[in-house]
Design the sequence.
């Protein structure tokens, strides 16, 4: 593909001996367009270097909805028929992105002040990915768009699982030096 030429421009030339992009090629183009806002990249570069704890998510089936709910007891993340109690809205929003990706376990920042900006960034990345799918494959069939989305979700889930979910309990610096050692 020529530099500066968009995927939509290439697919518009279908009548001129140019073949439309396959779903795999379009998925790679969308991943490249997301660049720094690709969810696994945010996860590897911005989340894993922090002090984190691992969190297991229930596996969502194909059509399971992921919903953040406000209840009398607090905030819950509903994944299919399972409800997960969350300490705050930011954590529920953060976990909802990974639940939509279908991740089984992820790292959650231990410092709650960092969760909200990361949740904002992940949600923006998620929405941008969906908008790029619709924009670049809007003229194609619904099945084609679903295939591109499935490929992107599978690739993102694989990269996040490969990066790992961190330790179950965060590491703490135990060296306090409160007393002088006597020799």
Sequence:
């Amino acid at each position: 593909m020529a530099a500066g030429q968009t995927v939509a421009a290439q697919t518009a030339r279908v009548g001129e001996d140019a073949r439309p992009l396959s779903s795999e090629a379009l998925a790679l183009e969308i991943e490249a367009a997301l660049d720094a806002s690709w969810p696994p990249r945010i996860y590897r570069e911005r989340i894993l270097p922090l002090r984190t704890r691992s969190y297991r998510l229930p596996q969502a089936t194909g059509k399971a909805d992921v919903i953040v709910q406000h209840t009398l007891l607090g905030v819950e993340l509903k994944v299919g028929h399972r409800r997960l109690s969350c300490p705050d809205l930011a954590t529920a929003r953060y976990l909802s992105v990974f639940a939509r990706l279908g991740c089984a376990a992820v790292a959650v920042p231990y410092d709650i002040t960092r969760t909200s900006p990361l949740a904002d960034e992940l949600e923006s990345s998620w929405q941008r990915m969906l908008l790029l799918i619709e924009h670049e494959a809007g003229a194609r069939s619904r099945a084609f768009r679903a295939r591109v989305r499935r490929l992107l979700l599978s690739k993102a889930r694989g990269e996040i699982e490969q990066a790992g979910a961190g330790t179950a309990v965060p590491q703490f610096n135990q060296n306090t030096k409160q007393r002088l050692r006597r020799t």
Observations:
- The first strand starts at residue 52 and ends at 56.
- Residues 131 and 138 are 10 Å apart (CA to CA).
- Residues 20-163 form one domain.
- Strands lie at 52-56, 66-71, 74-79, 82-86, 105-109.
